[in-house]
Amino acid sequence: MRDRPSRTAAYAVAWLALLGLLAATAAIGRLHLGTGNLVASLSIAVLKAAIVLWIFMGMRHATALVRLAAAAGLFVLALSGLALADFLPRHDERAAWQAPHQLAPGLAGPAEPASKPPSPR
Amino acid sequence: MSAVLPPASERSDAGTLGMWLFLAGELLFFGGLFAGYAIGRLHSPAGFAAAGVRTDLLLGTLNTAVLLTSSFVIAIAADAAAAHRARAAVLGFAGAALLGLVFVAVKAVEYRGEWHEGLFPGPGFSMRDAPQGAELFFMWYFSATALHALHLVIGMLMASGCALAQGLRAPAWLRALDAHAVALYWHFVDVVWIFLFPAIYLVAPRA
Hints:
The complex is a heterodimer.
Chain A: H1 4-28, H2 35-56, H3 64-79, H4 83-87
Helix pairs in contact in A: 1-2
Chain B: H1 8-11, H2 14-43, H3 45-52, H4 57-82, H5 86-116, H6 134-165, H7 172-175, H8 179-201
């Protein structure tokens, strides 16, 4: 708390850096770089988030306990990437739309025929 | 020193720690949203690209700048509140809440345009000839941005509370608001938007 003037200066620098990065990501978004677009926009987003975390959210002055709490959140967030382990290798199986009565009967017995034709979406 | 009471420095940290634990839980909430986005985009890249270029990049960029600025302002406000500089704290928290209001207003203009273009998922969805996944993109877009806006409105209420708490006759429950914790929450909502921005507006190059 003693170094307040320097803190406000750090906030100002962070703010200008964030606006600069925003301009950069918006500009790069106009270029046709293929996968490069995704890599650039994600890298810039991570950089912007790091600036907010480190300077605005005061992580650079935080106690070890607070840093641990934040790191735990990030770790569990990384685990949610495991959801992709199932979906990533799967292909979408395309099939023509089928009326319900065309489906094979389930275990509960023969399916009842559709009473009215379903509207086409 | 007493062995029972923690040192004052640790006690004043309790609000910060509590907010960080809450934000860790919020990360899971938004993490699931982004995992869903990744699955949708990996499985329907063409549909997501076709839908993504229909979003309003100009308004999206403007809103990002507004939100980044609000974070800058609230960071100063939280320091001012900690230093008992009431005037600066009131200005900062009220300014941040006002910038939040600007964000929500711009978002409303965006929603209005998308509604009239028939981009809201449902029977009236206009991109019927687009590759598969376009409607899914807009389903995600409206869910994610609405949830984000809800968080922002909660942040605006708390920031307004922090501004009012600086008043001399503010009730005790209002003065108990932890200005630093409120600022942390605000920054978190900002970080979520930092990742929403490329996911929504930069899916594919325009033109």
